[in-house]
Amino acid sequence: MDIQDIKNRFGIIGNSPLLNRAIDIARQVAPTDISVLITGESGSGKEVFSHIIHQLSARKHGPFIAVNCGAIPEGTIDSELFGHEKGSFTGAHEARKGYFEVVNGGTIFLDEVGELPLGTQARLLRILETGEYIRVGSSKVQKTNVRVVAATNVDIYDAVQKGKFREDLYYRLNTVPLRTPALRDRKEDIHLLFRKFIADFTDKYRSPNVQLTEDAQQLLANYPWPGNVRQLKNIAEQVAVLEKERLIDARILQQYLPTDNRNTLPIHVASGGNDDFSERDLLYKVLFDMKKDMVELKKLVVEIIQNGINSRIVEDNSPYINKLYREVDSSTPEQLVPPSTLTIHHSPAAGQNDDFHFHTQEAEEIEEESLSLVEKESDLIKKALKKHKGKRKSAAQELGISERTLYRKIKDLNLN
Ligand SMILES: Nc1ncnc2c1ncn2[C@@H]1O[C@H](COP(=O)(O)OP(=O)(O)O)[C@@H](O)[C@H]1O
Ligand SMILES: [Mg+2]
């Protein structure tokens, strides 16, 4: 089967060399019984690749199970994976087969494998080396024949060096490493993916198809996509469901892209070098938009508090307000309004009825607030330093920049 056939069969979109390389590795390693460690950011297609490997292997008619190791409590993970005997722990009323027993003859996908406790890692290593395992509470050695495909979105070698992941297991799993590329590393595929998802979703929801203008395509290409394909898919779905315009420009599209992501802060880019001006300009714009959002939001909160929420909803159908309601629906208030920028004074006297006392003059002050980026930047840095009591390491972490960059900025901005 060639790479294009695999793409068609598994619904994989994209033509970037990094993606093709990953598919090629999957194709070659699939028919062997070798363990594969798939590394890649969240939403970049790790699970899709585990299916490819299983389906193109001799085990394709055998069972396949995906297990999220990070989601199973430490106390029960051994029992889930390897089974247990009746009475082996409180609540073990019946004997139970583990996944490795159930999947005998097939493939198990161990997602977030770096989260496995050390004891479980030892059991896993034994299964990989000999096929042997022991149910919890038993002394009988059993055999199984399972192919392991593991995945991680963190640098697992880091965990090895910290003693949290067994080195021998790491090498055993990582015989053939496979990396699913981040979306930002295959920009050429982004518009392609978006078009495919839009077509799927407009079909599904019977909404009119939409097109992107040139600048909207640019915006998509330059967005950092921390949630990768999953996030892009999600945004395409929102656009398909909510957007009234058929031709979408950057201004409209911008409203669907979350701006509270740390990666989009201009400070972050500045640490990367000076050669990427267009990207930096774009990120500056994002910051401005964020600021604008914040001002609007503050005004809105003041108004709601003064007039009650219903009057506002009925009166205002502006796209901004609609967008805001969508955001409020899908995020916590803390994400929307960092407490440090919006001062709501909770009056202890009114504690019982949960009343908020709000300083309305603030909203007026806000409009006169400067929009200078340099000022904003130094403001943010000061705030971070203050919050972390002058500890530069923690402040840098919070700002999403390196300590070195923070030092430089403190010097450049004369913040000493
Ligand atoms: N290259 C791709 N083309 C089309 N869809 C993809 C591609 N990569 C991932 N997806 C889709 O993105 C979503 C997330 O993929 P998934 O494999 O669950 O990511 P991960 O396991 O790395 O978090 C799924 O809906 C998957 O179908
Ligand atoms: Mg996943």
UniProtKB/TrEMBL annotation:
GO terms for biological process: regulation of DNA-templated transcription. SUPFAM superfamilies: Homeodomain-like (SSF46689), P-loop containing nucleoside triphosphate hydrolases (SSF52540). Pfam families: AAA_lid_14 (PF25601), HTH_8 (PF02954), Sigma54_activat (PF00158). Keywords: ATP-binding, Nucleotide-binding, Transcription, Transcription regulation. GO terms for molecular function: ATP binding; sequence-specific DNA binding. This is Regulatory protein, Fis family. Residues 12-241 form the Sigma-54 factor interaction domain. It comes from the Bacteria. InterPro entries: AAA+_ATPase, AAA_lid_NorR, Homeodomain-like_sf, HTH_Fis, P-loop_NTPase, Sigma_54_int, Sigma_54_int_dom_ATP-bd_1, Sigma_54_int_dom_CS.
